[in-house]
Amino acid sequence: MCRTRSCEDREAGYTLAALLVILTIISLVIAYTVPEQWSMIMKRERERHTIFLMKQYARAIYNWERKHQALPVSLEQLQKARDPRMLRGSEKLICPLTGREDDWIMVPITAIEAQPGGAAVNPGGQAGVGVGRPQQQQGQQPQAGAMPPSKLNSQASPKDYVGPFVAVRPNATGASMIALKGAEDYSQWVYTLQDLKNEIQMQQLALSLPK
Questions:
Q1: Is the dihedral of CA 118, 121, 122, 125 positive or negative?
Q2: Dihedral pair phi/psi, residue 132, rounded to 5°
Q3: Predicted pLDDT of residue 125
Q4: Of 17, 119, 169, 194, which sits most exposed with the smallest number of CB within 10 A?
Q5: Cα gap 99→88, rounded to integer Å
Q6: Is residue 190 within 8 Å of 150, Cβ to Cβ?
Q7: DSSP H or E segment with residue 170
Q8: DSSP label of 3
Q9: d(CA 74, CA 18)
Q10: What share of the chain is helix, strand, coil (3-state, %, to 5)?
């Protein structure tokens, strides 16, 4: 009886030791992989939030232009605007990519490059950025005057720019996980007043189509 119990105790000890080894290996794998995966998840969420705020600024510029028949010339104008309020939430919006308040670069209309068959720069810098239609692709229907997505010339959008602007972009550089209109570097991200107008136009067109 004692001999049998002794064997069982040794087998239980071996099983426990093996289990501890397996748990140690699993812990090491988790320690090396989970933080990296979590970092990637958080980076993607910061990028999504940044794009959301860029669109919020484009909406604020849109509302400012409708009210004043001109483009804003500073972030403060949009932040302080009331009746109607242009920006929701805190007056100073933190850039998720840098973690700093108002760490945005104002984008002048001259920094938006004309696309083939699309937007031409409006010298007056006012509403209606350019005229024209995108080139119709084979098998596609015309898109009711909508223009191609804006493309940024970052050299024409310096960090110290002050004046009428049609978008904001993050004060950041580096490869992004999310491509914004084909741009995979933060320095090329842009979402302009005209991009917003295109979206509004497409939404109105979709609503007008027969069900």
A1: positive
A2: 125, 175
A3: 39
A4: 17
A5: 18
A6: yes
A7: strand 167-170
A8: H
A9: 65
A10: 45, 10, 40
